[in-house]
Amino acid sequence: MALFLLLLLSVLIPSSSFAQWPPSPGYWPSSRFRSMSFYQGYRNLWGYTHQRVDQNALTIWLDSTSGSGFKSVKAFRSGYFGASIKLQPGYTAGVITAFYLSNNEAHPGFHDEVDIEFLGTTFGKPYTLQTNVYIRGSGDGKIIGREMKFHLWFDPTQDFHHYAILWSPKEIIFLVDDVPIRRYPKKSDETFPMRPMWIYGSIWDASSWATEDGKYKADYRYQPFVARYTNFKAAGCSAYSPAWCRPVSASPSWSGGLSRQQYRAMRWVQTRNMVYNYCKDSKRDHSLTPECRR
């Protein structure tokens, strides 16, 4: 009888950190945009031999010889950009799986970038999802990151989940399964990316910093390190759209912005799941990130 009660309690009482889910955002931006296959919107960029497309899903992997990356055919000046991604379980320290916007090839050393990056981890520890924004500068010795990091409320290795960036002339919204986790508003021309960007994805070795500031490195005894992408979405104003092209909205309101219900869901995530906020890092020089003081 005691054994039966113990088993019953183990079912009724959540035992993992994935037990608490955010409140409903009340609106699902991803449902507004049609999914595309990989080849409808993207092409291989590097590591062709470490990339495979089957049943509308793209698999890329990193081993001791190479990683892999891809790039959108179009450049955009605003829009909704998403993909459903499944990560590798186990030891993935030092490995970065990314989905991001950038114009690095058009403006090397002086580019803009908006990142969703999954920082690999060690056995028994969760992935860290890092969001970041660069404005006109990286690779020139003046890298100014605007990182916010989160531990997810689910295990991203067990199934596909949808990750997205909504970029408008007013704000950038990062979303996970349509739940807003971060809003980066435009407060000045100097602190907001406005030049056209392409969409990228990649898997690569970032052992020098990815896991606990480089404490744990990529261990190729566990290779290959694999990531899968599907349910690609990219909609908005391309770099060549007419001036009257209307930016997409993150909320039911066409004026943009988030609804009260979406803000409530975002506050829940930031209160419970955020593990780093660059604006609250006392070691940072905040004269370089003036948006933190406003």
TrEMBL record:
SUPFAM superfamilies: Concanavalin A-like lectins/glucanases. The active site is at E113, E117. It is found in: Secreted, Cell wall; Secreted, Extracellular space, Apoplast. Keywords: Apoplast, Cell wall, Cell wall biogenesis/degradation, Disulfide bond, Glycosidase, Hydrolase, Secreted, Signal, Transferase. Residues 17-229 form the GH16 domain. Its EC number is 2.4.1.207. Residues 1-19 form the signal peptide. This is Xyloglucan endotransglucosylase/hydrolase. It comes from Manihot esculenta. The lineage of its organism: Eukaryota, Viridiplantae, Streptophyta, Embryophyta, Tracheophyta.
